[in-house]
Amino acid sequence: MKRQNISSGTPWEKTVGYSRAVRVGDQVVVSGTTASDENGVVQGIGDVYLQSQYIFAKIGRALEQAGASLRDVVRVRMFVVDIGQLGGGRAHGEVFADILPMITLRFANGAIGTIDNSRKAVYGYDQRVEVFGSAGSASSGNWYADAVTVSTAAGVGRGLPLNFFLERYLASYQHEMAAFVRCVLEGSPSPVSGADGRAPVLIAGAALRSLRENRPMRVGE
Questions:
Q1: SS3 call for 92
Q2: Lowest mean pLDDT among 16-30, 126-140, 146-160
Q3: Dihedral, 150, 152, 155, 158 alpha carbons, nearest 10
Q4: Whole-model pTM?
């Protein structure tokens, strides 16, 4: 499969050995991007908004070289020291307000979580969860009927993800029912409370408001 490496000319790309962006087939992946020009000079020092504007323009140029554009972006990760610094979010909104790529969340403890959930994917129900923190990371991918991956000269492939809740979470439903039966027979307290059920609803509500208002949102705000 044809590969295209794109460089923005910064000195670190050659020194460290990486590309600003890489296109393979119809997919383009952009490396982590900072507000430094081709001479290594940082732009917009002390101003998150100006730095973010510079970064998105830099990414846009790399995408154009790859035959794509910012309108083709489906996923963005932004790393900030303080999520209260809204300059990066404002610049992001100016670029992606009508494009609406997948967003990331930075939690109070410093970890960064990403949740992708698409029930309209042509290959089935797509669900992946990743959490990044200074001490490590955790990720959970799609469930498949088997662990077989077929590799040939034409490419690498595998079967479709399990496409229904009962298939994906069969073991969870079984444990849930078993716990309910124990509560009834033994009079023991339920391991899951109403607060546990309410928590994901609050998280979803905060994510929806964040999307609509184009700003970071605290759960329960």
A1: helix
A2: 126-140
A3: -10
A4: 0.52
